[in-house]
Amino acid sequence: MTSYVEVVALSLWLQTTRRLTPDHLLPFQQTALPREDRSMYHKEKSIQVKNSASALYNNLGVLRIAPRHLTYFTVVHANVVNMVSASWDGLNYSHRQLQSKEPNVATSTSLIMQAAFCPLPSRDLLVVTSQKGIQMYESDGSIMVYWHALDTPETPTAQAVFSRGISAVRESYICVGVSSGAILVFDVPSKGSNITLSEVLKEHKESITDMAPECSGSQECIADLVSADDGGNLCVWKSGEDFQLLNNIPGFDISCPSVKLWKGTVVAGYGTGQIRLYEAVTGILHAEINAHARWIYSLDIAPFSGLLLSAAEDSLVRVWHLTMTPETNSVEVVHLHNECVTDTQICGAKFCDGDGYAFAVTGYDLSEIIRYTQS
């Protein structure tokens, strides 16, 4: 009979097991067993928001404004974006609410699908996507600089129309996904409102769920954008005047709600609770992790330290460490920390800085942003 100790040991191994690619191209290297450090992070005072968070993927935006010692946070509730500006000393908070917009309507009831900050070298913008269109604001939410209406059929159809998935790319591009699977590429000037739709990418056949740029800052990486859809399909792109498709990584008819790109490696979170790591350009599967018991809603990477944050419906937020070894073309994943947000369906999680010193979490129907910092 299998003992309890043997069952626990097997469970730990399954949580961190590596899988070879189907053609066994990768040399096998044992992934380190989890080294959970319960004292790595501790809970800080929460930030209150005006409305509770909707149950949306990646429902938390964070932008660090170092010169002013401020951090901006956004949380979506129905047709409203709740913004909070928080000083680093925790003494000052200011609140702003942004409504969804649509032409010729005073008060729109269009549901907002996502709000995300897009940092570009020359300016930072806040992008809001909804059932009707795409709004772009100055990063503090004070001025709307651009509005793009979605093409909606005159008669209702079986498929909903919305925009979701937001990413800044390189020097001047902002990409936004659409429910049809298209990706809209906007060319953004260094100042002003002369934003133009420069290209429409039509590789995906299902609704876009998320997009992410190469966050390491490395100029050596060929790929600089990854997009995901409701079928779990991943597209890897190289930006430019004409975006180039570098790779199409097929899904398994399981949605990929959140995706990241770091040092040429795609990190994708799925509805199965799994995280998969692929080499972006070749599609080689580096690792598969049974990270959560339920649907993953959010991933984030601290680009300077290689810390990976994952959050899911199982009320758990996990912190992992990624290590790349270019010589052997391998990735090591080590589990570092757990936080359980009791009785909460987590829908957003973000690091608050590039080193992963602090992170923030939102949960469905919670009117607060929960913060954790390293001990």
Structural description of this entry:
With 375 residues, the chain is mainly β. It has one helix and 29 strands. The strands form seven sheets. Strands 1, 2, 27, 28 and 29 form a five-stranded antiparallel beta sheet that branches. Strands 3-4-5-6 form a four-stranded antiparallel beta sheet, with no helix packed on it. A hairpin with a 3-residue loop joins β11 (163-169) and β12.
What can be said about this structure in brief?
The protein has 375 residues and is mainly beta. The protein has one helix and 29 strands.
Given the structure, what is the number of helices? 1
Which percent range describes the beta-strand content? over 45%
- The total strand number stands at 29
The biggest sheet, with number of strands, parallel, antiparallel or mixed sense and barrel status, is: 5 strands, antiparallel
The end-to-end span amounts to 42 Å
Structural class, by secondary structure, is mainly beta
Using only C-alpha atoms, the radius of gyration works out to: 20 Å
What is the chain-wise order of helices and strands? HEEEEEEEEEEEEEEEEEEEEEEEEEEEEE
Question: Helicity level, as a percent range?
Answer: under 10%
What's the overall geometry? globular
- Average residue pLDDT: 88
Unreliable spans = 1-34
Detail the topology: elements first, then pairings:
Blueprint: H1 4-16, E1 41-43, E2 47-48, E3 61-65, E4 70-77, E5 80-87, E6 93-99, E7 112-119, E8 124-130, E9 133-138, E10 144-149, E11 163-169, E12 173-178, E13 183-187, E14 196-201, E15 208-213, E16 225-229, E17 234-238, E18 244-249, E19 258-262, E20 265-269, E21 274-279, E22 285-290, E23 296-302, E24 307-312, E25 316-325, E26 330-340, E27 346-351, E28 358-363, E29 368-374
Antiparallel strand pairs: 1-29, 2-29, 3-4, 4-5, 5-6, 7-8, 8-9, 9-10, 11-12, 12-13, 13-14, 15-16, 16-17, 17-18, 19-20, 20-21, 21-22, 23-24, 24-25, 25-26, 27-28, 28-29
